[in-house]
Amino acid sequence: MKQSENFHLGLCLAGAISAGAYTAGVLDFLIEALDEWEKRKKKGDPKSVPQHQVKLSVIGGASAGGMTGMISAFSLQKEFDPVHLSQPDLYQPRPDNPLYQAWVDQLEEELSPGQLSMFDLLLDPGDLDKNMAQSLLNSTFVRKIADKILDAQVETSISRGFVADELKIFSTLTNLKGLEYSLDFKGDKLENDPYRIYDHRDFACFSLGSRVFPGWERMDFTHPEMLERYKLAAIGTGAFPIGLSPVKMARNGKLMQELPWLSHVSAGGGNRFPTDWYESTFVDGGMMNNEPFEKVRDALLQLLGYEKEHSVQDYSKFESTVLMVDPFPSTTNFIQPGSSLLGYAGNVLSALMNQARIKPEHLINSLTSEMAGQYVISPIRYQRVNGEEKKIEGAKAIACGSLDGFGGFLSKKFRIHDFFLGRANCEKFLRDHFTVPLDEKNPIFERGYAEISAELKPHFMSTTDKKPGVQIIPLFSERKTQPEMPYWENEEQWPTLSIHELERYRPLLKKRIEQVILKSVSLNRLDYIKLWAGAKIFLNGKISSTLMQAMNHSLNGHKQLN
Question: Active site at which residues (predicted)?
């Protein structure tokens, strides 16, 4: 097959909970860089502007990453301004930027008197007034944010040159009903009694443009029913199990039958999906596949018309790659076995989440930094400790990393920090790491940089690569000596909370716990009174004290408590 004239990019956005603010910052800078490049190319100066074309072709993700990807795909249909750091206006809302609005502003402007943060909304027992408890936390804010962002009318849809005409968007889902399929074994068993298996891995797949992909719903953002499914898929992939409410959603059974990723369900067992609508209940897609880079790659290869065996790891020939954004990259921390019921329950959840990161062996073998098929952006920041600059990576680098990813709901400044860290990390990545070695002579990039003057070419080259390499997405701004990061009331670039700010959540926790206990089971009047007394007198205080202690420990571990 003839090599493509374009270079195709697939984004894999990993789960993050409130650290979706980091992913949002990465995408904000990425879109800004691509927009700027397109504007300069239109001026027609090949001696100062690389002329190759990068196409954003696939956006896939899980949990908060899936939500961010779906918001991004919607937002690319309209103009919006990137968010630059302005210290005097640090806490000001940015309603014109959907990524910032969804992950940083959230519903802060709608807080009631006395409420100080999003955590107040999560602990509000108002969702339990007339309903049984479906989650530990109040999840109504998620739907409100989705409505605010995705109901915004796109009056005039714009065409961005870097967005593929057939953009594919997907999120992973955990299907609580499960997809049934059967296997036949030889043995002494009843006839027509197959061995049944339930697969809970599921996907919500959408595409833009006129091209038809089997199993992918062609999306029209002006169609109310399609937009509602799109919203529910975004909310469902981020429905953190038990913590946030599950989502019920109906999808086209025919499309599910056609989707290659679900082909094992119908293989040998006929049509396992209804011909009209398939309905189920869904929770966090990160439970099944938290970093679906293999699915992003598969979607890219399908888009380009290649078989799965096609090599994507050769710099001299590759014409597509997967860029993963992972706010919580894998660490070497081991699970400490619990010594109580709650401890073991936490171990089980951690084990399930870790298992969701396991990939087939042939994919693991391909994941080396010397290969061309995948790149990753993950949190890195620097902090001066005893006069020396210390590099901090992963969950400890992001302010939303405390409380197992829920820390960002405690304070808007945590989310602001992570948004700008995402922008800073993306700039560094595009400038020095998202590159192609010059000696590989890839024809796409040779043509793109063919007329760049010798004087300007070093501007588009990495200063850290082992071998000289040119930027896949060229940056035109000057290299900064320090990343642009905000300063806080503590006169540091690392935001913190006071003990007083944390302690104000204790009575809110007690009230929420009491209501969740009372709304978790249906009881007759006498038993309800007994449970109410137990919850009021003992349980809510005991559980809230345990949770406050855990929150204190987590924030101290992240050096966020003063």
Answer: 63 (nucleophile), 284 (proton acceptor)
- For 491: left if phi > 0, alpha if psi spans -120 to 50, otherwise beta; the answer is left
Q: How does pLDDT run across 136-175, given as a tens digit for each residue?
A: 899 999 999 999 999 876 666 788 999 999 999 999 999 9
- Judge if 448 and 526 occupy the same domain: no
What's the pLDDT score for residue 411?
A: 95
Structure tokens at 185: 């074994």
How many domains does one find in the chain? 2
Would you state the pLDDT for residue 363? 47
Spell 130-145 as b/e; 16+ CB within 10 A means b: eeebbbbbbbebbeeb
Residue 485 included in any domain:
no
Q: Annotated active-site positions, please?
A: 63, 284
Which stretches of the chain drop beneath a pLDDT of 70?
1-4, 153-156, 184-194, 267-272, 307-311, 330-343, 346, 349-350, 352-373, 521-541
Tokens 């949990």 locate to: 63
Q: Mark residue 453 as left, alpha or beta (left: phi above 0; alpha: psi -120 to 50; beta: remaining).
A: beta
pLDDT for residue 482: 86
Residues 398 and 406: beta-carbon distance below 8 Å: no
For 318, 365, 380, 523, the CA distances from 376, given in Å and listed in that order, are 17, 16, 12, 51
Q: According to the model, what pLDDT value does residue 365 have?
A: 45
d(C-alpha 238, C-alpha 290), whole Å: 11
| Residue 427: CATH number of its domain | 3.40.1090
Q: Assess whether 430 and 514 both reside in one domain.
A: no
Q: Which residue, of 419, 437, 453, is where some domain finishes?
A: 453
Task: Name the amino acid, one letter, at 25.
Answer: G
Amino acid residing at 315: Y
Q: How far apart are CA 446 and CA 312, in angstroms?
A: 18
**CB contact burial 475-494 (16+ within 10 A = b; e otherwise):** beeeeeeebebbebeeeebb
Kindly report the backbone phi and psi dihedral angles of residue 388, in degrees, each rounded to the nearest multiple of 5, phi listed first.
-115, 145
pLDDT in tens, 40-59: 999 988 999 999 999 999 99
Q: Answer for the pair 145, 121: CB distance below 8 angstroms, yes or no.
A: no
pLDDT for 195: 72
Identify the H or E element spanning 166.
strand 163-183
Beta strands 320-325; 374-377: pairing state? parallel
Residue 235 parent element (H or E):
helix 224-237
Tokens 């002494």 belong to residue = 188
Residue ranges making up the domain that contains 505: 496-561
305 located within any domain? yes
Q: Alpha-carbon distance 537 to 377, whole Å?
A: 48
Helix (H, G, I), strand (E, B) or coil at 492: coil
Residue of 404, 280, 410, 282 whose CA lies nearest to 353: 404
pLDDT at site 270 = 52
Angle (deg, nearest 10), helices 20-42 and 63-75: 30
pTM for the model:
0.91
What does the chain come to in residues?
562
In order, the DSSP letters of 414-435 are HHHHHHHHHHHHHHHHHHHTSE
